[in-house]
Amino acid sequence: MFRQLQHIDSAFRHIRSFSLVFLVACTAVSCFALYHSYRQVQMAQERIYILAGGKALEAFSADRKENIPVEARDHVRSFHAYFFTLDPDEKVIEANIGKALYLADGSAKRAYDNLRESGYFSGLIAANVSQEITVDSVRLDTGRYPYPFRCYARQRLIRASSVVTRSLVTEGVLRSVSRSDNNPHGFLIERWATLENRDLSSKSR
User: Fold this and answer.
1) Where are the domains of the chain?
2) 3: part of which helix (H) or strand (E)?
3) How does pLDDT run across 132-168, given as a tens digit for each residue?
4) CA nearest neighbour of 185 among 110, 82, 94, 85
5) What is the pTM of this model?
6) Superfamily assignment of 64-204 in CATH?
């Protein structure tokens, strides 16, 4: 009788031990499966497919912090390209300046108003002068916020008789704002000022 009870007790302990091991194994497999599924979903969400020329190109998303230097420099380049690329056409000037003013605060608007009041734009139109800009480099300090920058560029004033090349150096700070169609990088230029704008050379056409 006691031997049977011992066998029953031993069998119960074995079954209990087996059940505990089985439960732990099932829990571990379930946790691994959940983690693996979460990682797969996360990786799938990071993939972006871009349709270009009838072909689907795969791209990967990244955190904004990783792209701040690239996006900030391109924002500065875009602003200067809009603000300083001008043709002797009032509508073209207004369209380009309008795009530029979406990327900067009132300091750029004041610079535009000063140029307009001084007759700079009407002079371009009257003399059929086109203005182009090439940004050589943008120095950016991402260790401070708002991000200070300094832009080095060259201007070309194309007249009927000559082409004047000028040196342009500006500075300001970049503040993060919401992205939009008019401001795709999500930055706003503040305290924008021109440090240098002098003639480098003049060539006859």
Assistant:
1) 2-49, 64-204
2) helix 2-46
3) 999 999 999 988 899 999 999 999 999 888 899 999 9
4) 82
5) 0.69
6) VirB8 protein (3.10.450.230)
